[in-house]
Amino acid sequence: MAVRIGVVLYFLAWAILFITGLVLNALNVNWNSGKIAQHVILVLLLGILQGSIYEFPLQTMVTLFKGGKLRENPTADCEHLSVLLNYNLLAVSKDDVDECFYTMFQVYMGNLSKNTSIVLVSATPDEELRRYEIEVRNQYRTLIYDELFKEGVFFVNDDFAQVPEGRLRFVWFHYMRIPKMEFVRNHLHNICDQFAREFMLIHRKSKVLRKCGQYQDLMLLSMGDDRAYTYTDPALYGDMARPYNEPLFYDSEDVENIYRRNFDYTLVLDADTGVPDGMLRKILGIAAAHPDKGIIQPAIKFSYSEDDTLYMKLEMLRQKIYEPMTNANTELLGQCSFFGKGLIKNDIYINNVIGTRENPIERVPIDVLSHDTFEAAILKPYYAGSSYLVEAPCFNYISWNIRETRWNRGEILLAIYFWRRTFGIMMRGLQRLVQRRQFNKTTLRTESKLDFITAYIAHSALRQMFMKPILLICVFLYIGTDLRYPYVPIFVILFLVIVFPKFAVCTFQNFHYVLIETVASIWQFTPEAVVGVVRIARSLYANVIKKCKWVPQRSVEEHFKKNNPFLSSLKHLWLYSVISLIAIILLALFQPDSHLLFFLLATLCLLPLFTGFTSLTSKLETAKKVAAKQRKQLESFDSVNINRNYEEVWSTQTSYIPMGLYYNPSPYVNYAYSSEGIY
Fold first, then answer.
1. Read out DSSP for 233-284?
2. Would you state the pLDDT for residue 270?
3. 583 in the Ramachandran plot: left (φ > 0), alpha (ψ -120 to 50) or beta?
4. Separation of alpha carbons 191 and 153, rounded Å
5. For residue 390, what are the β-bridge partners?
6. Within 13 Å of residue 20, how many CA atoms lie on the same side as its CB?
7. Of 263, 288, 292, 578, which is least packed with CB atoms within 10 Å of its CB?
């Protein structure tokens, strides 16, 4: 009841602020100066714009009132729960494969237990890359076997200091009562072999529903259905439908290993998402305490490295500063967004999102990109803020902009389904007009009814996205408008969005960090009135023609790592600088009093400088030097730890065998890797 009252007060305060702001904007206009139509439009747009940003001061007030201190989530015993850690990949290069498998290995070994398995679901189309994925999987299996065998021998010798604490407690202590000789002769190989086999790779046949379809099919395989029955109806999905009863995955031992395992949970992860050592158990404990929740959403924290760029550190700083606001507001609303990376309870998800073969539901639209918004709206995730996953922040402003463009396209697709009788009809009409015979009309099989709070959370990104064109229109409407206090409305907006939220999180300890973040935000986000509009235009265009080619983030980052960051920034942003410079000259000649527009154009003109500077490390080194150092470290890791054949592994292991104990190796050689290929 207390939460419900708090929510009512929250939205009541929002309505009061909106009406008050609208009245004050109207009073600020000198209506006797003429241009009534321009003034009316300005007042209305400012009201909409300010109304959208009032959630920032309201969230700040909630944080000040409730406190942003993280509250520990309740946990319960989770020994009985099984979990499948799921990575999803569509690789375009070997670097993609290497990065994903390296992350998988670290996560698997850091959270190893008898009820934990890990699998990469690959949608990679290139045959050579798919063979490379199998090769790398086998390399890591050899490494897993090697590491665990050594630990097992240390365990037998009671040399517990040589074994990581987590694996000692949750793996090896289960075998404490087995006599040492029997353990080495009859159990050690099988234990190491079994854990190595749980490091898996499967290849999906279809690309339907992209990443979301990958883990949906994985859940169905785990539950005992290995043939397609979802998204197979051409009447609903046209050319996007897949054949009914088509195998979900290409046949392999790993597919057979997952089939009918009936995992309780699937932890969905991206290729660069890590799970800190031992954190999986904490997440599962929270899930055990909330068995009715379909999604447990851990916090997402950015990983840290001394070689990170200034932009990456700025992103980490922002996350840390705003974390208390996230904690306070998710507690107030009683639910949160789904970030596309979280713990999913398989039976609840299947029953509410996928459906059965006899009664398919298919609540996620087949062409949607932001699938997590629909999943969150249906399952209302529980925010497990006392646990967390880690991932790397965007490398620099350019890669952030690419990601935002991709997300904007996803949000526009969401809007088509959220408001299908208005915005949806308009967009489908444009698609039909432009695509002509290639237009493929899709229909949602089962609509989701959103309650007020769920809709508020689901529409959050759309609200923020469409603030940018409204802000740009307001800035232009300021030219020639007679206001008593012309810059007050815009400065109020900037103050409420950038400065006021700091009141809830600023302390004597972090004051200098808050100041740095505020200055950087003004420099980075003021041009968003222009750059954000371009981003939206590109996203709309891509949704209309459905043939837009995006530049991969990795290729951009690699380009920056190989070249001068300032020149690379100019390569991507020079047009903004040139146009803004020309506009500044024209304004100086014809509208010298347009100070607000001058400020906007100045920050836009200097955007390449911001991008180039923040692409350096904190030591002001270029990413090229850092990349060379990282490549050397990775090559060292590969050559020492991975590229070892079975005979080398075995010769190392035999030196650890306690005196008097004999072990006869079984044909684990099938997983070994040599310079000549796979045995």
1. -HHHHGGGPPPTT-BSB---HHHHHHTT---SEEEEE-TT-B--TTHHHHHH
2. 92
3. alpha
4. 12
5. 274, 301
6. 7
7. 292
Q: Which residues are within 8 A (CB) of 193 and not within 5 positions of it... i.e. 6 or more apart?
A: 145, 666, 668
Q: Per the structure block, which two tokens stand in for 134?
A: 């199998």
Beta sheet of 295-302, edge-to-edge order: 199-203, 116-122, 83-89, 265-269, 342-345, 295-302, 382-391
How far is C-alpha 345 from the chain's CA centre?
19
User: In the chain, what are the helix, strand and coil shares in percent, each to the nearest 5?
Assistant: 60, 10, 30
What tokens appear for 75 in the block?
């946990």
For residues 207-218, give the mean pLDDT: 94
Task: pLDDT band for 622, please (50, 70, 90 cuts).
Answer: low
Q: CA 165, 170, 171 angle in degrees (round to 5)?
A: 95
Instruction: Round to whole Å and give the CA distance between 419 and 417.
Output: 6
Inter-residue contact 377 to 363 (CB < 8 Å):
no
| Res 132: pLDDT | 96
Task: Identify the bridge partners of residue 678 per DSSP, sorted by sequence position.
Answer: 673
Model confidence, pTM: 0.87
Give 432 or 639, the one with higher predicted confidence. Answer: 432
Do the bridges between strand 199-203 and strand 116-122 make them parallel or antiparallel, or are there none, so unpaired? parallel
Kindly report the backbone phi and psi dihedral angles of residue 462, in degrees, each rounded to the nearest multiple of 5, phi listed first. -65, -40
Residues ≥6 apart with Cβ < 8 Å to 593: none
pLDDT, mean of residues 302-325:
85
Using pLDDT thresholds of 50, 70 and 90, give the confidence band for residue 303: confident
In sequence order, the β-bridge partners of residue 298 are 384
CB–CB of 505/68 below 8 Å?
yes
SS3 405: helix
> DSSP states of 5-37 as a string?
HHHHHHHHHHHHHHHHHHHHHHHTB-GGGS-HH
pLDDT, average across residues 94-110: 94
- Which 3 state secondary structure label does DSSP give 200? strand
Above 60 in pLDDT, residue 217? yes
Contacts with 520 (C-beta within 8 Å, 6 or more apart), sequence order: 314, 614
In this structure, the strands spanning 265-269 and 382-391 are unpaired
| CB 303 within 8 Å of CB 390 | yes
Q: Are 458 and 370 in contact (CB under 8 A)?
A: no
Q: Is the dihedral of CA 260, 263, 267, 272 positive or negative?
A: negative
**Cα dist from 39 to 46, 54, 247, 477, 494, whole Å:** 10, 22, 62, 8, 21
**Distance from C-alpha of 666 to C-alpha of 291, rounded to nearest angstrom:** 41
Residue 101 CB neighbour total at 10 angstroms? 22
Note whether 376 and 458 are within 8 A (CB).
yes
Query: Which amino acid is located at 18 in the chain?
Result: F
Place 625 in a pLDDT band, splitting at 50, 70 and 90: low
The CA distance from 628 to 561, in Å, is 9
Alpha carbon distance 85, 260 (integer Å): 16
Residue 347 DSSP label: H
CA-based nearest residue to 322, from 73, 66, 52, 506 = 506
Residue 469: alpha-carbon gap to chain centroid: 25
Q: What DSSP state is assigned to residue 120?
A: E
Please give the Cα distance from 670 to 665 (Å, whole number). 12
With b meaning 16 or more CB within 10 Å and e meaning fewer, what string describes 354-366? bbeeeebbbbbbb
> What distance in Å separates the CA atoms of residue 417 and residue 423, rounded to the nearest whole number?
9
